[in-house]
Automatic annotation (TrEMBL), chains A, B:
Highest taxon, organism lineage: Bacteria
Name by which UniProt lists this protein: 5'(3')-deoxyribonucleotidase
Species this protein is from: Chitinophaga arvensicola
Protein family (similarity comment): Belongs to the 5'(3')-deoxyribonucleotidase family.
Single Gene Ontology BP annotation: pyrimidine deoxyribonucleotide catabolic process
SUPFAM superfamilies in the record: HAD-like
List of catalytic residues: 7, 9
Coiled coil: none
Pfam families membership: NT5C
GO molecular function: 5'-nucleotidase activity
């Protein structure tokens, strides 16, 4: 049984999609997702806008679930010690919202296994699944880079492009046959 | 420079005193603090009452600061890497309240150095200052038991009875002379 630290934003929660959706709704401009590739997060939006959207009440509560994450995290948690580790502290409003979001979408994760932090340098685990170099570079266990538009240039890590690839990496049952992962947990 | 994980409740925040005060105010009964000695937290109160008080909105926001903690944590943070690590996840309302409490009373602690978690088994540091055996017993660094009524029977740890003793343990400047620790930071 391994200890696995899993990031929320852009890993369990599709933050990028939500940012594009909210921006389109509130600013009336649709941004082509490919414009987000290979550049720092938020920099495809006008100066300060991404930070403003992220800081607004309700943003983190409404993020859609990343495709496949519920089934695979559930299956992982049945076989391993899974911790959700989110750098929530930069956005204080997100603390309550992320807690409620996890209760709704990942009710099988115990409160004991949730960590809201700032820097992740204090986290000790066997694996960390994250989309940020800054979190993975100081991690002493095995880092797994979850693909996000901003991290496409990174080549230093084992990359997982989807939750299906996470399931395959950890050799979860029923993955290769295509059967529902729900049956594993 | 050492990495030091510091607990909030009963270490930086005088939770025990606040619990006694709120109980006296809301239930009209003054409990002698010595009745809390050597027994599990909350068990000196009628069944379920301590949990009810802790779960009420505002409880964690109003806890008084533990004597000496501000000065010594500030001095520690000037010389070491200090992380505030609180098991806040059991009481979801406490997330926002603890964040606001830290901003008010410990404004020199960066959001990057705050961790709200459930289980502390995921925390990696050189030292952990905590009042709970359950947090210290699995810690791989050096545990320091901060004295609280419920932990008086514990004999397995290096014990610190006050923030003055924490300052002495880490050999902070200006401690032994009795000069203000404020000047160190």
């Amino acid at each position: 049984m391994a200890k696995i630290a899993i990031d929320m934003d852009n890993v369990m929660a599709d933050l990028t999609q939500h940012l594009l959706d909210v921006y389109a709704r509130e600013y009336g401009e649709v941004i082509d997702p490919v414009r987000l590739n290979n550049i720092p997060e938020g920099s495809a939006f006008p100066e300060g806008v991404a930070m403003k959207i992220l800081s607004a009440p309700g943003f983190f509560r409404g993020i859609p679930v990343m495709a496949g994450s519920q089934e695979v995290v559930k299956a992982l948690a049945a076989q391993h010690e899974v911790f959700v580790v989110s750098a929530a502290m930069e956005f204080p409003l997100s603390l309550a919202e992320k807690h409620a979001w996890l209760e709704e979408h990942f009710p099988f994760i115990s409160w004991k296994n949730i960590v809201f932090c700032g820097s992740k340098t204090i986290v000790e685990a066997d694996y960390m699944i994250d989309d940020h170099d800054k979190n993975l570079s100081t991690f002493k266990g095995t880092p797994l880079l979850f693909t996000a538009p901003h991290n496409l240039p990174l080549q230093d890590y084992t990359r997982v492009n989807s939750w299906e690839e996470v399931a395959a990496y950890f050799e979860l049952n029923a993955v290769e046959s295509g059967a529902s992962l729900q049956t594993v947990a």
